[in-house]
Amino acid sequence: MTTLVTGGTGFVGLNVLEQLLTRGDEIVCLAVNPLPGAAAREFAKLPGKLHIVQGDITDPGSIEAALERFGCKRMIHAAAITAGTARDETDPTRIVEVNLLGTINALKAARKAKIERFIYPSTGGHFGEAGINVGHYLDEDADHPVPNSMYGISKYAAERGVLRLGALWGMDVRIGRVAVVYGRWEYETGLRDAMTTILQATRLAMTGREAVFPRLGPADWIYAPDLARALLVLLDATTTKHRLYHLAIEAPFDMTAWCERLRKRYPSFSFRESARIEECNIAPLAPFRTPFSGRRLREEFGFKPAFTLDSAFDDYTQWLAAHPK
């Protein structure tokens, strides 16, 4: 059964492709950017079959053509612009075109092609003010987003659109709100306005420089391969009890925990927190929110991460060493 992955050359998309190819699936990757050279070389060695199609989700015809050409039966719609404040100010229209209208285009194309299952990776970035200092893990039903960025606004509108149109059109739609993902295949695509603070710090450590960052608090980090596995759980499940799931593992940690491990691995590295934003050389794209509850995903599907913090650290630093920028 062939799966179409939009945005498959991006951070989350590449991890999804790798997991699908590892288990031998046939995949169509629809993306604006080409497949990175390292990914092309490594993915070619995996048992699955990958078709690369250049296309833009703001062009409905490119989605429809890919679905028809390869006879895709499932879709993971991962294409998005992860925008920061500067892009909010200068290009809000494009953010909405890609994140909201592009999602509607993908859903309409999926309906036309009679796709059996539509998976939408959403975000915790749309919680905005409602996600700060809540005092408990954010729940799918009890806690409601109040987005305060164009990224959050457009992604939340898209999420609600998927639920609304899926219900009207009788489609099997499933939404996975992504916790704070880090790890393999993160790189500058031009569609993500900041790298994760973990990658920023690790790059500094690998070159023997000091990391200076504001007090950020713990975040519900999830290692990218584990996130991809969680999305595949939603893709593969014959039935689900819900349409919306938080893709989280309830093991939050802060930047100090990561940087302590970096300091042991790279002795010339140092780090400190600073209240003076102007001297920080690490900054998050948005304020860290209260972590997600992963109860629904865990209880319904028995999902458990394959990586602990320590094993993810070892895997990722080795991976980065083998994939220099």
* Strand content range: 15-25%
* Nearest-integer average pLDDT: 96
Q: Helix proportion of residues, in percent?
A: 40-55%
Outline the biggest β-sheet.
7 strands, parallel
Low-confidence stretches: none
Which value, in Å, is the CA radius of gyration? 19 Å
Question: What is the H-and-E element order?
Answer: EHEHEHEHHEHEEHEEHEHEHH
What is the tally of beta strands? 11
Q: What does the overall shape look like?
A: globular
CATH architecture: 3-Layer(aba) Sandwich
Count of separate structural domains: 1
> CATH superfamily name?
NAD(P)-binding Rossmann-like Domain
Number of helices: 11
Named CATH topology? Rossmann fold
CATH C-level name? Alpha Beta
Given helix and strand content, the structural type is alpha/beta
Q: How far apart, in Å, are the first and last alpha carbons?
A: 35 Å
Descriptive account of the structure:
The protein is an alpha/beta fold and 325 residues long. The protein has a single domain, classed as Rossmann fold (3-Layer(aba) Sandwich). It contains 11 helices and 11 strands. The protein has a 7-stranded parallel beta sheet with strand order 3-2-1-4-5-6-10, with helices on both faces. Helix 2 (37-43) links the parallel strand 2 (26-31) and strand 3 (49-54). The two termini are 35 Å apart. The mean pLDDT is 96.
